[in-house]
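Look over both lines before class:
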Amino acid sequence: MEHRQYCIYCNKEITTRSSEHVIQNALGGLLESEDICCPECNNYISKYIDAPFTKTFNPIISRIDNFSKTNNTKSMPPCTGTVSYNGTEYSANIKGGRVVSCPDLSRALRCDISKLPTPPQIVSYNFDLQNGAFQTGMAKIAFNYAMSQNVDFKYLASGLAVDRAGNTVNSIQYNYPVVPFCPLNPVDAFIESEPVTTPFHNMILFSQHNELWCYVDLFNTFQYYVLLSDNVPNDKQIYANYAQTLQKLNRDAPVLDDLHDPKTVMIYAQQYGVEPTMDAAEFTRRVNNAVAGKSQKVKMSHIIGPRIARTPIIPLMMQARGDTASVRLIGDSIHLYFDDDIFQERNFRTVTPCLDRGGVAAYPHEIMRVVNENPDMLKQYTTMKFNNLNNQLCANKQK
């Protein structure tokens, strides 16, 4: 494929290639594209769009063990939160899971908190969601992903506003509608309530009824649909998905025991995704190669499929016993995502069963309809996700 000749923002010829992270590098994003913009516009976006957006996530970045980034790999961003000491809570500045300053506590005790025999306990982190910067950042991720998947710019042009004088860019705005996600069926509700042991990012780009949407899920908590276009022809089918984990991978060669036992070999083969063989040396070589070549970029089905498969169908059915509509919705949700035990990834987060009308509906449109009728539903879901996130962040003991 030929490279883009002109910068999408300033329209200057690209003479030097500049890698633009689809999801910001500060957030651990690995997917990059050299076919979006020139170095100058890349720097502008980094300073005025990415920086205000990514600081929201500082509490998460500083608490993910072995967090993986391509640049500034050892940086530990600061954040704020609430700490508890002797039953009283205080506002504090935190870095890398450590309380670095707590002015109110220092004044109350008249001493430096670093001299305390027992440090204050972190009880919650603050997430400073600036709506304008946040929505712009989410829209920019969706735009970048569409560009990286070679979507024709003519479908995206109406939402991009660039103020420029000649070839000099004064401002860039991503004017794409953003719709917050909330689960509308029992399967999605269950998997979103599950604790996540391996943090990941996920993007799904899909066309639907002349519209082009991008679902963006950051850190399994910040989940939004971005409407990139409403003029995609019906015969133009667009679909792509991307998923990646956020922790550095352990590439040390594993110790394999009892390779004379066929059952043990089969367990190792499934664990590392290799073909089994009773030749111990050959099997060890295959496993070591699989570990060395493992990528943080993973198939969405490998992350989402198992979570859906863990849905407790029978307990859900028992809980809904006597409510025919709810029982039907549970069954419809399972069939929507699995067909003969095969995960139907094109249905995930693109459509959802309708409880009141039957059939399926476009997920973002159904969210807008349901939330308009029940605004508390979105508020309750968002509160639940943030509480779960804070519990996970505070679960790691201070070192």
The chain has twelve helices and 18 strands. The first helix runs from residue 39 to 54. The chain has a mean pLDDT of 89.
